[in-house]
Amino acid sequence: MPYKITEKVRLNPVTWKLVLEAPLIARQAKAGQFVIIKIDEKAERIPLTINDNDPQKNTITIIFQEAGATTRRLGCLKAGDVLTDILGPLGKETDFGKAGRVVLVAGGVGIAEILPVAKYAKREGNYVLTIIGSRTKDLLILEEELKRYSDKLIVTTDDGSYGVKGLVVSPLKEAMASEKLDLCYCVGPDIMMKAVSETTKPCGLKTLVSLDANMVDATGMCGTCRVTVGGKTRFVCVDGPEFDGHLVEWDLFLKRQKRFIEEEKRAAEYFESHHKDCIYKR
Ligand SMILES: Cc1cc2nc3c(=O)[nH]c(=O)nc-3n(C[C@H](O)[C@H](O)[C@H](O)COP(=O)(O)OP(=O)(O)OC[C@H]3O[C@@H](n4cnc5c(N)ncnc54)[C@H](O)[C@@H]3O)c2cc1C
Ligand code: FES
Predict the structure, then answer these.
(1) How does pLDDT run across 235-256, given as a tens digit for each residue?
(2) Eight-class DSSP state of 248
(3) Whose CA is nearest to atom 7 of ligand 1?
(4) Distance from residue 109's CA to the centre of ligand 1 (Å)
Protein backbone atom coordinates (compact mmCIF):
# COMPACT_ATOMS: atom_id res chain seq x y z
CA MET A 1 0.00 0.00 0.00
CA PRO A 2 1.51 3.39 -0.96
CA TYR A 3 1.73 6.08 1.74
CA LYS A 4 1.01 9.64 0.59
CA ILE A 5 2.91 12.69 1.83
CA THR A 6 0.26 15.26 2.76
CA GLU A 7 2.58 17.99 4.03
CA LYS A 8 6.26 18.86 3.81
CA VAL A 9 7.89 21.58 5.92
CA ARG A 10 11.54 22.65 6.05
CA LEU A 11 12.67 23.10 9.69
CA ASN A 12 16.27 24.12 8.97
CA PRO A 13 18.68 23.82 6.02
CA VAL A 14 19.04 20.04 6.50
CA THR A 15 15.93 18.97 8.43
CA TRP A 16 12.43 18.26 7.11
CA LYS A 17 9.06 17.44 8.59
CA LEU A 18 6.80 15.12 6.57
CA VAL A 19 3.18 14.34 7.40
CA LEU A 20 2.14 11.00 5.90
CA GLU A 21 -1.15 9.18 5.47
CA ALA A 22 -0.78 5.94 7.46
CA PRO A 23 -4.13 5.18 9.16
CA LEU A 24 -3.24 1.97 11.01
CA ILE A 25 0.02 3.36 12.41
CA ALA A 26 -1.70 6.65 13.30
CA ARG A 27 -4.18 4.72 15.45
CA GLN A 28 -1.59 2.66 17.33
CA ALA A 29 1.60 4.75 17.68
CA LYS A 30 2.91 5.55 21.16
CA ALA A 31 5.74 7.80 22.39
CA GLY A 32 9.17 6.28 21.85
CA GLN A 33 8.15 4.14 18.87
CA PHE A 34 9.45 4.33 15.33
CA VAL A 35 8.71 3.27 11.75
CA ILE A 36 10.86 1.75 9.03
CA ILE A 37 10.33 3.49 5.71
CA LYS A 38 11.21 2.52 2.16
CA ILE A 39 10.99 5.22 -0.51
CA ASP A 40 10.51 2.77 -3.40
CA GLU A 41 10.95 -0.90 -4.29
CA LYS A 42 14.75 -0.73 -4.52
CA ALA A 43 15.35 1.73 -1.70
CA GLU A 44 17.14 1.07 1.60
CA ARG A 45 14.99 0.65 4.73
CA ILE A 46 15.64 3.31 7.37
CA PRO A 47 14.22 3.77 10.88
CA LEU A 48 12.65 7.11 11.86
CA THR A 49 10.90 8.09 15.09
CA ILE A 50 7.15 8.70 15.00
CA ASN A 51 7.24 12.35 15.99
CA ASP A 52 3.46 12.73 16.14
CA ASN A 53 0.31 10.82 15.16
CA ASP A 54 -3.24 11.97 14.50
CA PRO A 55 -5.81 9.13 14.51
CA GLN A 56 -8.55 11.57 13.36
CA LYS A 57 -6.64 12.66 10.28
CA ASN A 58 -5.07 9.20 9.78
CA THR A 59 -1.58 10.74 9.67
CA ILE A 60 1.81 10.33 11.26
CA THR A 61 4.64 12.90 11.33
CA ILE A 62 8.31 12.15 10.83
CA ILE A 63 11.19 14.61 11.17
CA PHE A 64 14.53 13.74 9.65
CA GLN A 65 17.92 15.21 9.09
CA GLU A 66 19.66 14.66 5.77
CA ALA A 67 22.60 12.40 6.72
CA GLY A 68 23.31 10.22 3.68
CA ALA A 69 21.79 8.91 0.46
CA THR A 70 18.37 7.78 1.73
CA THR A 71 17.54 10.80 3.90
CA ARG A 72 18.72 13.11 1.11
CA ARG A 73 16.43 11.31 -1.36
CA LEU A 74 13.60 11.61 1.17
CA GLY A 75 14.27 15.35 1.34
CA CYS A 76 13.69 15.54 -2.42
CA LEU A 77 10.11 14.24 -2.20
CA LYS A 78 7.17 16.68 -2.13
CA ALA A 79 3.60 16.75 -0.86
CA GLY A 80 1.53 14.41 -3.05
CA ASP A 81 4.41 11.93 -3.59
CA VAL A 82 4.11 8.46 -2.09
CA LEU A 83 6.42 6.10 -0.16
CA THR A 84 6.22 2.40 -1.09
CA ASP A 85 6.39 1.05 2.45
CA ILE A 86 6.05 2.15 6.04
CA LEU A 87 6.35 -0.54 8.70
CA GLY A 88 5.28 0.19 12.26
CA PRO A 89 4.75 1.17 14.94
CA LEU A 90 7.95 -0.61 16.02
CA GLY A 91 9.91 -0.79 19.25
CA LYS A 92 8.78 -0.57 22.85
CA GLU A 93 6.80 2.46 23.93
CA THR A 94 8.08 4.90 26.54
CA ASP A 95 6.65 3.84 29.90
CA PHE A 96 8.52 5.56 32.75
CA GLY A 97 5.19 6.93 34.03
CA LYS A 98 5.18 9.44 36.89
CA ALA A 99 8.88 9.42 37.76
CA GLY A 100 8.87 12.82 39.47
CA ARG A 101 11.42 15.40 38.31
CA VAL A 102 12.54 14.42 34.82
CA VAL A 103 15.35 15.97 32.81
CA LEU A 104 15.16 15.47 29.04
CA VAL A 105 18.41 15.96 27.14
CA ALA A 106 18.53 16.06 23.34
CA GLY A 107 20.90 17.15 20.62
CA GLY A 108 20.71 17.62 16.85
CA VAL A 109 17.83 15.72 15.27
CA GLY A 110 17.40 13.99 18.64
CA ILE A 111 15.39 17.13 19.51
CA ALA A 112 12.69 15.83 17.14
CA GLU A 113 12.86 12.41 18.78
CA ILE A 114 12.46 13.86 22.30
CA LEU A 115 9.26 15.85 21.51
CA PRO A 116 6.85 12.87 21.86
CA VAL A 117 8.68 11.89 25.07
CA ALA A 118 8.22 15.43 26.43
CA LYS A 119 4.47 15.27 25.68
CA TYR A 120 4.30 11.88 27.40
CA ALA A 121 6.29 13.06 30.44
CA LYS A 122 4.02 16.07 30.93
CA ARG A 123 0.84 14.03 30.41
CA GLU A 124 2.00 11.63 33.16
CA GLY A 125 2.32 14.56 35.58
CA ASN A 126 6.10 14.90 35.78
CA TYR A 127 8.08 18.09 36.35
CA VAL A 128 9.96 18.43 33.03
CA LEU A 129 13.30 20.17 32.61
CA THR A 130 14.39 20.05 28.96
CA ILE A 131 17.93 20.72 27.75
CA ILE A 132 18.43 20.86 23.97
CA GLY A 133 21.60 21.55 22.05
CA SER A 134 22.61 22.20 18.47
CA ARG A 135 25.81 23.24 16.73
CA THR A 136 24.47 26.69 15.79
CA LYS A 137 21.23 28.70 16.11
CA ASP A 138 20.35 27.95 12.44
CA LEU A 139 20.22 24.22 13.16
CA LEU A 140 18.00 24.45 16.25
CA ILE A 141 14.49 22.98 15.82
CA LEU A 142 11.21 22.73 17.77
CA GLU A 143 12.14 25.13 20.60
CA GLU A 144 8.60 26.58 20.88
CA GLU A 145 6.93 23.15 20.66
CA LEU A 146 9.16 21.79 23.45
CA LYS A 147 8.51 24.84 25.65
CA ARG A 148 4.83 23.85 25.72
CA TYR A 149 5.64 20.57 27.43
CA SER A 150 8.51 21.73 29.65
CA ASP A 151 8.47 23.49 33.01
CA LYS A 152 11.89 24.85 32.08
CA LEU A 153 13.80 24.76 28.80
CA ILE A 154 17.53 25.40 28.38
CA VAL A 155 19.11 25.77 24.93
CA THR A 156 22.81 25.36 24.21
CA THR A 157 24.73 25.98 20.99
CA ASP A 158 28.30 24.82 20.40
CA ASP A 159 29.29 28.21 18.94
CA GLY A 160 27.31 30.38 21.39
CA SER A 161 25.14 31.85 18.59
CA TYR A 162 22.05 31.26 20.80
CA GLY A 163 21.36 30.24 24.41
CA VAL A 164 24.20 28.96 26.56
CA LYS A 165 27.53 28.46 24.76
CA GLY A 166 28.80 24.89 24.92
CA LEU A 167 27.47 21.34 25.17
CA VAL A 168 24.32 20.03 26.87
CA VAL A 169 26.37 18.34 29.59
CA SER A 170 27.22 21.67 31.32
CA PRO A 171 23.63 22.73 32.17
CA LEU A 172 22.89 19.10 33.02
CA LYS A 173 25.70 19.13 35.60
CA GLU A 174 24.42 22.44 37.01
CA ALA A 175 20.87 21.08 37.27
CA MET A 176 22.12 17.93 39.02
CA ALA A 177 24.05 20.07 41.52
CA SER A 178 21.20 22.49 42.25
CA GLU A 179 18.03 20.35 42.25
CA LYS A 180 16.84 16.84 42.99
CA LEU A 181 16.22 14.92 39.77
CA ASP A 182 14.62 11.48 39.50
CA LEU A 183 15.15 10.50 35.86
CA CYS A 184 17.23 11.56 32.88
CA TYR A 185 16.10 10.69 29.32
CA CYS A 186 18.54 11.34 26.51
CA VAL A 187 18.46 11.10 22.72
CA GLY A 188 20.91 12.47 20.19
CA PRO A 189 24.31 11.71 18.69
CA ASP A 190 25.81 8.49 20.10
CA ILE A 191 28.76 10.32 21.60
CA MET A 192 26.43 12.76 23.38
CA MET A 193 24.37 9.92 24.90
CA LYS A 194 27.58 8.28 26.11
CA ALA A 195 28.75 11.58 27.69
CA VAL A 196 25.38 12.15 29.38
CA SER A 197 25.34 8.59 30.75
CA GLU A 198 28.86 9.03 32.13
CA THR A 199 27.79 12.33 33.74
CA THR A 200 24.74 10.90 35.51
CA LYS A 201 26.25 7.53 36.52
CA PRO A 202 28.45 8.65 39.48
CA CYS A 203 25.45 10.13 41.33
CA GLY A 204 23.11 7.31 40.33
CA LEU A 205 20.61 9.41 38.36
CA LYS A 206 18.69 6.77 36.38
CA THR A 207 19.25 7.47 32.69
CA LEU A 208 17.37 6.16 29.66
CA VAL A 209 18.90 6.54 26.21
CA SER A 210 17.12 6.02 22.89
CA LEU A 211 19.64 4.36 20.58
CA ASP A 212 19.69 5.25 16.86
CA ALA A 213 21.32 1.96 15.84
CA ASN A 214 21.80 0.92 12.24
CA MET A 215 18.93 -1.39 11.29
CA VAL A 216 17.95 -3.67 8.43
CA ASP A 217 14.95 -5.95 9.06
CA ALA A 218 13.76 -4.40 12.36
CA THR A 219 12.25 -7.72 13.45
CA GLY A 220 15.06 -8.97 15.70
CA MET A 221 16.24 -11.51 13.10
CA CYS A 222 19.22 -9.99 11.24
CA GLY A 223 21.30 -8.86 14.23
CA THR A 224 22.34 -5.53 12.67
CA CYS A 225 21.14 -3.44 15.62
CA ARG A 226 22.80 -5.67 18.25
CA VAL A 227 23.91 -3.90 21.42
CA THR A 228 25.32 -5.19 24.71
CA VAL A 229 23.44 -3.94 27.76
CA GLY A 230 24.43 -5.10 31.25
CA GLY A 231 26.48 -7.91 29.68
CA LYS A 232 23.48 -9.23 27.73
CA THR A 233 22.86 -9.10 23.98
CA ARG A 234 19.90 -6.95 23.05
CA PHE A 235 18.38 -5.84 19.74
CA VAL A 236 17.47 -2.18 19.50
CA CYS A 237 14.58 -2.84 17.07
CA VAL A 238 12.62 -5.17 19.36
CA ASP A 239 14.10 -4.73 22.87
CA GLY A 240 14.57 -0.95 22.50
CA PRO A 241 15.11 1.67 21.33
CA GLU A 242 15.26 2.76 25.03
CA PHE A 243 17.91 1.27 27.31
CA ASP A 244 19.56 2.01 30.63
CA GLY A 245 22.43 4.32 29.60
CA HIS A 246 24.55 3.20 32.56
CA LEU A 247 24.49 -0.41 31.31
CA VAL A 248 25.13 0.14 27.57
CA GLU A 249 28.60 -0.98 26.43
CA TRP A 250 29.25 2.30 24.66
CA ASP A 251 32.64 1.63 23.08
CA LEU A 252 31.37 -1.51 21.38
CA PHE A 253 28.19 0.28 20.25
CA LEU A 254 30.14 3.23 18.81
CA LYS A 255 32.44 0.81 16.97
CA ARG A 256 29.51 -1.13 15.48
CA GLN A 257 27.84 2.08 14.32
CA LYS A 258 30.85 2.73 12.04
CA ARG A 259 30.93 -0.58 10.24
CA PHE A 260 28.96 0.49 7.14
CA ILE A 261 31.01 3.62 6.43
CA GLU A 262 32.31 2.34 3.06
CA GLU A 263 28.81 1.34 1.88
CA GLU A 264 27.41 4.70 3.08
CA LYS A 265 30.14 6.51 1.14
CA ARG A 266 29.35 4.56 -2.04
CA ALA A 267 25.62 5.24 -1.63
CA ALA A 268 26.32 8.97 -1.20
CA GLU A 269 28.45 8.96 -4.38
CA TYR A 270 25.68 7.15 -6.27
CA PHE A 271 23.17 9.73 -4.99
CA GLU A 272 25.45 12.58 -6.16
CA SER A 273 25.67 11.14 -9.67
CA HIS A 274 22.03 10.02 -10.09
CA HIS A 275 19.75 12.19 -7.96
CA LYS A 276 21.66 15.40 -7.21
CA ASP A 277 19.40 17.50 -9.49
CA CYS A 278 16.41 17.04 -7.21
CA ILE A 279 18.18 18.98 -4.44
CA TYR A 280 18.16 22.12 -6.59
CA LYS A 281 14.51 21.72 -7.64
CA ARG A 282 12.89 21.60 -4.21
C1 LIG B 1 14.91 3.93 16.34
C2 LIG B 1 15.54 4.99 15.48
C3 LIG B 1 14.92 6.19 15.32
C4 LIG B 1 15.49 7.18 14.51
N5 LIG B 1 14.82 8.36 14.37
C6 LIG B 1 15.32 9.30 13.58
C7 LIG B 1 14.60 10.52 13.39
O8 LIG B 1 13.50 10.73 13.92
N9 LIG B 1 15.14 11.45 12.56
C10 LIG B 1 16.36 11.25 11.93
O11 LIG B 1 16.82 12.14 11.19
N12 LIG B 1 17.06 10.11 12.10
C13 LIG B 1 16.57 9.14 12.90
N14 LIG B 1 17.25 7.96 13.04
C15 LIG B 1 18.53 7.80 12.30
C16 LIG B 1 18.24 7.49 10.83
O17 LIG B 1 17.71 6.19 10.75
C18 LIG B 1 19.55 7.59 10.02
O19 LIG B 1 19.96 8.93 9.98
C20 LIG B 1 19.33 7.11 8.60
O21 LIG B 1 19.18 5.71 8.59
C22 LIG B 1 20.50 7.50 7.73
O23 LIG B 1 20.33 6.94 6.44
P24 LIG B 1 21.06 7.56 5.18
O25 LIG B 1 21.07 6.55 4.10
O26 LIG B 1 20.49 8.89 4.83
O27 LIG B 1 22.54 7.85 5.68
P28 LIG B 1 23.73 6.81 5.74
O29 LIG B 1 24.41 6.72 4.42
O30 LIG B 1 23.25 5.53 6.35
O31 LIG B 1 24.68 7.56 6.76
C32 LIG B 1 25.22 8.84 6.44
C33 LIG B 1 25.96 9.39 7.62
O34 LIG B 1 25.07 9.47 8.75
C35 LIG B 1 25.55 8.67 9.81
N36 LIG B 1 24.45 7.86 10.36
C37 LIG B 1 23.78 6.87 9.71
N38 LIG B 1 22.88 6.30 10.52
C39 LIG B 1 22.99 6.95 11.69
C40 LIG B 1 22.36 6.80 12.92
N41 LIG B 1 21.45 5.85 13.10
N42 LIG B 1 22.72 7.65 13.92
C43 LIG B 1 23.66 8.57 13.72
N44 LIG B 1 24.32 8.76 12.59
C45 LIG B 1 23.99 7.95 11.59
C46 LIG B 1 26.58 7.72 9.20
O47 LIG B 1 27.58 7.37 10.12
C48 LIG B 1 27.12 8.51 8.07
O49 LIG B 1 28.16 9.36 8.48
C50 LIG B 1 16.73 6.95 13.85
C51 LIG B 1 17.37 5.72 14.01
C52 LIG B 1 16.78 4.75 14.81
C53 LIG B 1 17.44 3.43 14.99
S1 FES C 1 17.44 -4.56 12.70
FE2 FES C 1 17.73 -6.66 12.42
S3 FES C 1 17.78 -7.41 14.45
FE4 FES C 1 17.29 -5.31 14.69
Answers:
(1) 999 999 999 999 999 999 999 8
(2) B
(3) 48
(4) 10
